[in-house]
Amino acid sequence: MVQRSGPSSLDVAAATDAAPERNGRTRPSSDKQVSNVFQPGRRTHSLLGVQVAGIGGYVPDVVVTNAQLEARYGFEPGWVEQRTGILERRHAPEGTATADLCVEAARNAAQSARIDLDDVDLLVVGTFTPDYHCPSTACLVQHELGLDCPAFDVQAACSGFMYALVTAAQFVASGNSETALVVGGDCNSRIVDPTDQRTAPLFGDGAGAVLLTKGDPHQGLLCYQLGADGGGTPLLYRPAGGTLTPATADALAAGDHYLKMDGRNVFKWAVRALTDTIELVLDRTGMAVRDVDLFLVHQANVRIIDYAMEQLGISPDRVHNNLQRFGNTSAASIPLAMDEAYREGRINRGDTVLLSGFGAGLTWGTGLFRW
Ligand SMILES: CC(C)(COP(=O)(O)OP(=O)(O)OC[C@H]1O[C@@H](n2cnc3c(N)ncnc32)[C@H](O)[C@@H]1OP(=O)(O)O)[C@@H](O)C(=O)NCCC(=O)NCCS
Question: How close is the Cα of 56 to the center of ligand 1, in Å?
Fold first, then answer.
């Protein structure tokens, strides 16, 4: 059992001010409901016989530094770096959207695996910033890559890659897919209010992809947990643009199509979620922190990562971070970090890698992957 200490009781009940309305009633967002946010559950599963055959990442060329945002929007100098550890992020140029980022990441993954994309028989894309509400971003990626396979999106916000990975791995483990392409991609710069210091500078654009193929019986997810708690909706959500509140002129004028975030309470939830879910997965496999070769966790805020790792007794050299350069790229964050770590020689066959994502929903997903 991993030993930890630190804050355990959360004041999430305060996170209720921006609750979505339905028929005049406040929905899953009353004080009582939100105060119950993060009921992690104890269900975990195992999924072996799957391997990562290739990884690829892609970020747009346009670098946007904190200094540029400070000059452009009057943000408090040094605030973003001090509160998040983020120094710069990438923004997709006009005319480039999530599917374009995903296509580039997929091509890079195929190249690294020396796998012909014609062999791909399943495509799952994790994204919460689709090019269109309909059709799915996966269909656009499928078309652009000329794939002959089923293609669908998984929407679990910043846990999107973990959800997509676990979904595709089921097909591979069962023998119903021989080569599955899993992509996590988001174009966050399009959904944040650029003038909002507490939200916009935290996010960036990018995509990451893996190709999954049948592995030996020791490879794959030794243990994983996927979780969701919709009681946390008002902590991180986009009020307008869906079927409840369409993107009317009034909604757009009010900025309700932008991502709304209760950063303070997301912060506290994230520290606890990350700590609890990693501890659970390690516990279930009887593994200790020292048995894990590398920790790749969602790149949201370096303070969230540092606090959680400290509580779990994980030293910083066992964690691969890149949020300093890319910010929070949502579903792309874990595969982008994985791609970098792999290319730096930090992941090798037989290694045990802990992957953990968390985000809007609330959702979370953690997997202990034997490479
Ligand atoms: C937006 C943000 C940068 C603002 O930074 P900030 O002003 O320094 O942080 P805040 O004060 O808003 O919130 C941090 C809270 O966590 C608390 N906290 C600090 N260390 C903590 C720890 N180890 N464990 C739990 N909570 C902790 C702080 O005390 C503070 O709560 P308080 O105001 O009740 O004292 C920050 O809130 C944030 O990054 N939130 C998470 C955003 C995020 O990652 N979103 C995407 C999720 S996928």
Answer: 31
Q: pLDDT per residue over 30-68, tens digit each?
A: 344 445 556 667 899 999 999 999 999 999 999 999 999
Burial call 204-232: b when 16+ CB within 10 Å, e when fewer: bbbbbbbbbbbbeeebbbbbbbbbbbebb
Matching CATH topology for 12-16+25-40+220-329+336-364 and 47-214?
yes
Domain 12-16+25-40+220-329+336-364 coded CATH 3.40.47.10? yes
Contact 291, 345 (CB under 8 A): no
The CATH H-level superfamily of 47-214 is Thiolase/Chalcone synthase (3.40.47.10)
The CA radius of gyration of the chain, in Å to the nearest whole number, is 19
For the cut 50, the answer to whether the pLDDT of residue 29 exceeds it is no
pLDDT of 42: 86
Active site residues per annotation: 158, 298, 328
Pocket test for ligand 1, best of 238, 264, 306, 330 (most atoms within 8 A of CB): 264
